[in-house]
């Protein structure tokens, strides 16, 4: 997070390393195709593992084939394999370990625990969410027939291998591996503004509605096992997995891929139960087993499912438009939408992850304002900035809008180019009054009737309670005549009314002022978009020296500080 790309590496590395190796040695550095290939492989191998587990548990080939098929044809899962994500490979590895554990846990030889531990460790270092399976197997001695020493041996092997590998990666990455993959997720989970049950309930209810049949069959299997005094391993894995699942879907950015692990467990339990039911007497029980197969199909697609939409592809004219706008210089781009431009513009692109960097800062692990990226935006180091509408950080957008302008809007992205002229940050009122000096282009020369405050972690200024109005005056002394001046401010009117507004005016002589910007507030001023609207006004002084006056009436405020700087552009 010190230099480009500004990406938070939230997931452990096996999936990405595997895709990189395939891209390097087999696909001519095409990382997108390599990522898809690994995802398809994980999906296919996951189905094979599920077939193998049910077959070994029941000796019933029919249910071993049909139950995973119902899982595979779920609209949610078939859409998800289009994503370049580690989930399917991670769960494939995790349940390969489960299958080995379930079929060999009574064996006395030492080879299978070592193999199971290595596979589980690989799953953990593909995606951390497989920790739920590790915890389930570590405590599986509560299931009749599974020995405590077996679970203890597995726990020690997985724990030891994971600690050694994690420390090695932490050292190799200069002390950042654990910060990205352990401390950052832990801080997110502990932050109630990011992780809370209000986020979880709609997702859990949608999941239950979509997979009600599968859930009911699994509950029926649990009840049947308890009636016979035997808890199945998959029942225990589901119970252990549940609190992990609730915590995961409580996070702000949770998506339906968080349910994959639970879906697999429920599908395996249903498959084993139905296969056993089909071998019992009387005949109506066998008939019921086959009829319940239909219940395993999802009732409907999850309404909040985002996997339906595939990755956008850039049309040739869009790539051409970006090339035309950017020229030969570096291009800053939100990584969420960069894939369509990788092939033709890869060397020019400078990536940042708009979502994760935002939360990385929120939990105190990074500062955008003190980053090189913020400095480069302010100093207009990029020939173009490309922002896609997915997960945009409002703070980054505010910085971009301060020194760049929207040049072209395409179907999948917006292209910004540097604003012409020189940019100046206006001194906050309350600071030291500056004398007008030739080398200081913009000076704060007076402020009166103002009071400062803090709200939502930001600074603002408003009219003092006993003053009729609050006034700030800046003097401009440019090297040559200014043809166009643009002022950017972030006003707010908490209490709407005819007596509350913000006005900006300019004067060539300091006596007669000409208003060029007025804001009387809107209903959105008290919404969650705290620093909106961002207002920009321009005028044509055609002079090298002039003054700008900002006036606050009634409840009007102006946000100030790093998040919402007052900027003046001179051309």
TrEMBL record:
Keywords: Membrane, Transmembrane, Transmembrane helix. The chain crosses the membrane at residues 7-28, 34-54, 61-82, 154-180, 200-221, 258-275. It comes from the Bacteria. The lineage of its organism: Bacteria, Pseudomonadati, Thermodesulfobacteriota, Desulfovibrionia, Desulfovibrionales. It comes from Solidesulfovibrio carbinolicus. The keyword Membrane applies. This is Glycosyltransferase RgtA/B/C/D-like domain-containing protein. Signal peptide: none annotated.
């Amino acid at each position: 997070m010190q230099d480009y790309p500004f990406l938070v590496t939230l997931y452990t590395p096996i999936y990405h390393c595997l895709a990189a190796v395939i891209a390097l040695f087999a696909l001519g550095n095409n990382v997108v195709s390599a990522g898809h290939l690994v995802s398809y492989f994980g999906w296919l191998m996951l189905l094979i593992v599920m077939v193998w587990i049910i077959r070994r548990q029941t000796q019933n080939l029919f249910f071993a084939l049909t139950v995973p098929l119902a899982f595979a044809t779920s609209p949610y899962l078939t859409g998800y394999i289009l994503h370049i994500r580690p989930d399917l490979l991670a769960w494939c590895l995790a349940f390969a370990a489960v299958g080995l554990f379930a079929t060999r846990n009574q064996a006395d030889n030492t080879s299978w625990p070592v193999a199971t531990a290595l596979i589980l460790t690989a799953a953990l270092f593909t995606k951390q969410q497989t920790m739920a399976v590790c915890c389930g197997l570590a405590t599986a001695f509560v299931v009749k027939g599974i020995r405590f020493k077996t679970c203890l041996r597995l726990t020690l092997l997985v724990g030891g291998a994971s600690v050694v590998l994690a420390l090695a990666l932490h050292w190799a990455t200069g002390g950042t591996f654990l910060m990205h993959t352990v401390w950052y997720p832990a801080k997110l989970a502990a932050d109630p503004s990011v992780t809370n049950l209000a986020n979880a309930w709609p997702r859990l209810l949608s999941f239950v509605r979509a997979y009600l049949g599968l859930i009911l069959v699994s509950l029926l299997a649990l009840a049947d096992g308890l009636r016979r005094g035997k808890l199945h391993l998959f029942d225990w894995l589901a119970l252990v997995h549940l609190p992990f699942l609730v915590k995961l879907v409580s996070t702000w950015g949770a998506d339906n891929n968080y349910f994959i692990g639970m879906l697999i467990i429920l599908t395996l339990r249903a498959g084993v139960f139905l296969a056993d039911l089909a071998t019992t007497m009387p005949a109506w029980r066998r008939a019921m087993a086959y009829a319940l197969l239909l219940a395993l199909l999802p009732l409907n697609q999850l309404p909040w499912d985002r996997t339906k939409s595939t990755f956008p592809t850039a049309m040739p004219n869009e790539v051409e438009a970006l090339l035309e706008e950017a020229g030969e210089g570096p291009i800053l781009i939100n990584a969420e939408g960069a894939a369509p431009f990788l092939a033709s513009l890869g060397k020019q692109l400078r990536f940042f992850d708009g979502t994760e960097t935002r939360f990385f800062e929120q939990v105190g692990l990074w500062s955008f304002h003190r980053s090189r990226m913020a400095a480069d935006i302010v100093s207009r180091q990029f020939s173009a900035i490309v922002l896609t509408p997915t997960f945009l950080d409002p703070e980054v957008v505010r910085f971009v809008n301060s020194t760049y302008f929207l040049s072209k809007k395409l179907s999948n992205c917006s292209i910004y180019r540097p604003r012409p002229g020189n940019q100046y940050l206006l001194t906050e009122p309350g600071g030291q009054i500056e004398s007008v000096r030739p080398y200081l282009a913009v000076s704060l020369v007076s402020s009166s009737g103002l009071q400062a405050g803090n709200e939502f972690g930001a600074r603002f200024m408003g009219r003092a309670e006993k003053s009729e109005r609050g006034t700030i005056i800046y003097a401009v002394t440019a090297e040559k005549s200014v043809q166009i001046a643009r002022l950017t401010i972030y006003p707010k009117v908490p209490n709407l009314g005819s007596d509350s507004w913000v006005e900006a005016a300019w004067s060539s002589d300091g006596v007669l002022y000409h208003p060029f910007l007025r804001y009387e507030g809107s209903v959105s001023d008290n919404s969650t978009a705290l620093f909106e609207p961002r207002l920009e006004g321009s005028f044509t002084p055609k002079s090298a020296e002039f003054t700008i006056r900002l006036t606050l009436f009634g409840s009007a405020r102006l946000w100030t500080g790093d998040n919402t700087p007052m900027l003046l552009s001179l051309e």
